[in-house]
Amino acid sequence: LGREKSKRKLKLSGKVVLFVGRMIEKKGAGFLLKSANNFRDILFVFIGDGPMRQEIENKAKKLKNVIYAGKLMQNKPEELDKLVDYYSAADVFATIPTYDEGFGAVYLEALGCGTPILCSDKGSLPTFLDDTVAKMIKPTQENVNSAIQELLIKNSKTLEKMQNNCRKFAEE
Description:
By secondary structure, the chain is an alpha/beta fold. The protein is built from 8 helices and 6 strands.
């Protein structure tokens, strides 16, 4: 839909990191919440539900750079449209599982909207993603912070190149 157009529609500005999924530690939601403390100029948007929901909502009340956008259901057309807007607005889609995750549709959904992935190098992720569209890391807080720094602050050319590769990669 276009990153800047989607950001305007959602009233988001600056760099955006998006998390969509079950809000649990082993999906990496905690890593991203901690990163929000270190990167106050980057917006962290969380969509989903789960045991960490209250913690995320509380953090969103305290920090201007954390947003809890709710639980958006794909089987409801108006919520699906809003989810696509968030995928399209994000500069990076991030979920950093600490376990061997199988294929997740959220990765393909993000790529289809032109949004590169920040994820762990565990499970099936390295089998269907590559470095043209994803930054895969060992799941530690230090590595998450370093990857966010690299992609969103230091090396915008790399991020832009990855963004340009995403849609074609998803189609293939």
